[in-house]
Amino acid sequence: MPDRPAGAFLVHVLTASGAALAFLALRAAVDSRWPAMFMWLGLALAVDAADGPLARYFRVRETLPRWSGETLDLVVDFVTYVFVPAYAIAASGLLLPPFDIAAGIVIVVTGALYFGDSHMKTPDNYFRGFPALWNCAAFYLLLLRPTAWLAAALVAALAVLTFVPFRFIHPMRVRRLRQLNLALLAVWAGLALWALWRDMAPASWVTAGLCAIGLYVLAAGFLRRPDEAPPSTK
Asked: What does the angle CA 224 – CA 157 – CA 173 come to, to the nearest 5 degrees?
């Protein structure tokens, strides 16, 4: 039997370490070291994936009710998924003034509203709308380097999609096609690491693979059958 109070608090520390990783990512972004920024954000994503199972194992909610793991997770997710990527998009030269600052403001405001939505997920674990994955949006924008007007249009479209109630998959929690989704996530991670190793200028087949998987993730929510029942809560 693990030492639950100590273990539970260490889970909170692990979650909070995502904020430290966000700080390191921001330092890299200030210096325009985009691969380093995405490496720190990728580590934060790994922490975000690990802390949930650990929290359930140590029964953090029951063991340490004084600290809210949900609140802590939302705070850290906001800075890693929204705030640092918003700065990167605004400071990278992708957009022309004043649209660069406007885009950053739109991203942080819509992202904050999304994280404040108590119905951000459906009963069957899909996200409602674009789930403020601005770290991924920033990755694709810096990988593809579209024209300034197209970059601005893409940011605006994703901001609007934040409030459009379409389903967006959570690859580790949505049951439908989970094995396929996890396999594609692993392939995406490998291709993304290769792109970072190549200083965001990989071979064309790597870029094509990343774009194909990204398009699949955007469309996968529409593959849900209308009669697909949510998982039982009993």
From this structure: 30
Q: Which pLDDT band holds residue 3 (cuts at 50, 70, 90)?
A: low
Model pLDDT, residue 2: 52
Sequence letter at residue 52: G
Pull the structure tokens for residue 172.
Answer: 């580790």
Query: 123-137: b or e for each residue (b if 16 or more CB lie within 10 Å)?
Result: ebbbbbbbbbbbbbb
Q: Report the share of the chain in percent with pLDDT over 90.
A: 67
Residue 75: C-alpha distances to residues 27, 43, 86, 108, 119 (Å): 19, 16, 15, 13, 17
Q: Which residue has the tokens 């885009």?
A: 103
Assign 156 to helix, strand or coil.
helix
Gyration radius from the chain CA atoms? 18
What pLDDT score does 178 carry? 83
State the helix-helix crossing angle for 34-57 and 178-197, rounded to 10 degrees: 150
Q: Is the pLDDT of residue 231 over 50?
A: no
Residue 57: phi and psi, rounded to 5, are -65, -45
Owner of token pair 């739109």 = 106
Report residue 117 CA to chain centroid gap: 16
Query: Closest Cα partner for 197 from 42, 11, 30?
Result: 42
Q: What pLDDT score was predicted for residue 65?
A: 84
- Per-residue confidence (pLDDT) for residue 124, from 0 to 100: 82
